[in-house]
Amino acid sequence: MGVRPVVGQCDPIEQVSPGAPVIAALRAGREPLVAIEQYRQILQAAHEPLLLAERIATDLEAAAAAGPVLFAIDDLQWADRVSRFLIRMLVPRLLGLPVVWLLAGWENAEDLLGPDHGHVEDITLVPLTATDLAAVTQDRLGHVPDERTRRFLEASAGNPLLALELLDGLARAAARGDRDTAPAQFNAAIAQRLRDLPEAARDLVALVAVAGRDLPVPDALRLLPSARGLEPDGALAQAFDSGLIELHDEALAPRHDLVREAVCAALPTPTVRALHRRFAQLHLDEGHALAAAPHARAAAIAGDVPSALILITAAEQLVTPSPEDAGDLAALAFRTVRPEQIEWLEIGRRCLAVLCRTQRAGDALAVADQILARVEDGDLVGAVEGEAAWALWLSGQLGQLLSRIEPLLSAGRLDQAVAARLTSARALANTRLLGGQDAAAGAARALDLARACGDPDALALALHACGEAARNEGRHRDALHAFRELRLLAGPHQLAEEITTLQFLDRYKHAQLLLDEVWAEHGDTTSAILPALHCARLWQDFNLGRSGEAVTDAHTLLELGRQLNNHVYALDAVIAEASVALLRGQTQDAAALVDSAERLIDADADVRRPGLTVLAGWVAASQGDLSRALDLLRPVAEGASSSCNYWPLWPCWMGLFFEIGIAGQDGSFANVVVRVAELAAERNPGVASFEGVALSLRGRSKGDLPMIARSAQILARSPRPILSGFGADTYGRALLADGQKAAALEQLDRAWDDYHRMDARVYRAEVECIMRQAGARRAKWAVARNRPDTGWTSLTEAERRVALLIADGHSNRSAAAELGVSVNTVGTHLRAVFAKLDVQSRVQLANTLRGAEPALTSDRPGSAG
């Protein structure tokens, strides 16, 4: 069976056309990889990178099932950000299928793919040697190079194209009898060849070079200036004879990128700008603002309003699929217009909106300040500051947010709706800066004002502030009411806040239902909500003990942040991944993550401090530095009742804090932790995770065995294995101290199982040590401790289930649906399976597992036991 080639070509003009090189390759050639209807569906997803990757992956999986596929992409250095994102997603997604990727460009493939995307072979093209150049000279000139020719060839630095161009120039010069005028370098040779052409042919070559991509012949002839003294066919023939351009599938293209660059370098700058402007107008007339934008960018000069309008129109279309490109174009559009031009204010406000939506806080503030310096209308000033405030909130720069809007609010004289929006923005910022009661009071006042004026934007901001303030105080039912109303008002992109609040209330089944629902209906079609949804999924997996999935979610969240230019949830990703590392005993890895967070997260210290401080304290305790741990955690615990962040009241921290206090012989700190846990339980009555932890810590501080017993019963109902394990662990140790060995070992067994289920190796080892000292032995300990690095028994439970489904013929997508996890999670597990079983394809995986069929039966999804 033959290999089906899929070939894509990147070019600088397509760099703002999301995914164009990858998408176009699917319909290239005589036998396109996808049918026209599938291609239409892919095009419809071009502005949603995750959906786009999913649809292309599905089609490639189907094609690979029919036979091997070779996917080649040339000139990768020109790939747009979405194409790079697609490649990073598709390569691991198609692991084990007969799909080979051939990526050609100036950069190393591992720089694009990362170190853990399977086998990557780097083939570096080295310059031609002196021997090679001599052989080429013999072939082109009919004799070995003389000293003069060798001197010319040295200028090529071993580049084959440059060498051929120089040799052809020498040959042409010799044929004219003009031995001394052969061009000494490539650009000069191209410029000379361009000058030698008649005017019409020269204009045609210039058009093709400036186009930056293959130019259809009808477009070229339409753009070619008339009345040049030659018919178009004659100009085409002369241009082809020059060797500067070629014909590919009814489209004209330079013979090589270096030829294109040399032709452009030979043209006067005004000529290049004029040609770019002509192309921009052509694409705009056809309704293709994205195709027009690169030409408008190249043509733009100060005061060029038509180019600025093209740039901002393209930027608005790119906000969702490629926010970084959108921000770049918006910033350039604003720089292109001049304040004295009548269009300046309209274009400026459109640029500001794009920069705010793409979280370019610095550029947004620069544009806002330029506008504010030139307008007097108070309501317009307030509206501009309101847009800037949202950008500052998303980037965590809250101090600057308040310093900008406070003077406006203090001065008054604002339209009621504008005043309500600014008041709500101030209240939202204060949820990260003020204590719980003060922040809640400010949010309530903002909500009253927003309801009174009826402005939906103000109401959405005020409800968000109320939800944040309630959550920071640990009043999760109040937070749920606010976030639920916000979702009903603002739509599904606010659902993630509601989901995380349900998690705090131990309503994980309801949270999962909403996650599944929003993922099915909106998750892969609206990139704007993806980071928040992935963050909610991250905490769903982490809190339910699915540590491997949680780490995968964290990596996906960071990758999405890079693609969508949305780093709001980077802190959550770092905290979750570092927590998993600490639970596994990987203290150095956790410490490195905490250190990197300061560079990763561009937000005010008030936003970063609480979560990272807790992690730093945990790291210090794990390293045995209890004094430093207590110094770090004491302010967090003592300020928890009036904190401007919910991290200090997170139930999973309470037991950790208490243990550090006891180990550090700091009874005062331990008592503060008990009071904080009881406060959280009081504010969330009936929630097992809060009530059980508070009861356990109070029972331990009083030495009250019945109270500890009740706490273990309550925590057994908690859906969080770390807390159910903590309850059983605490009760088991108390029973052992009371001399009730049999009952103690039963509880400690439960704790060991819970810790093992979530891969909390540190806690599991501690429980095992206590049971050993009590004389107990368990076969499961050796299995867990001596798990090999390779082979079937080295796989985790999740990896085994994925391996079995893939071996049975499931795709990544269908396996994800079967297991109720994300496709990314399946891909991560599958890479681990391939490495541990030393297989390179899904066929090898199936054959490997088929040989061990009897031993695998009990592991199959849906089997008994």
Automatic annotation (TrEMBL):
Signal peptide region: none
The protein's name: Regulatory protein LuxR
Lineage, opening ranks: Bacteria, Bacillati, Actinomycetota, Actinomycetes, Kitasatosporales
Single GO biological process annotation from the record: regulation of DNA-templated transcription
Annotated GO MF terms: DNA binding
SMART domains, alphabetized: HTH_LUXR (SM00421)
Pfam families: GerE
CDD domains in the cross-refs: LuxR_C_like (cd06170)
Keywords annotated in UniProt: DNA-binding
Keyword Transport in annotation: no
Domain HTH luxR-type: 788-853
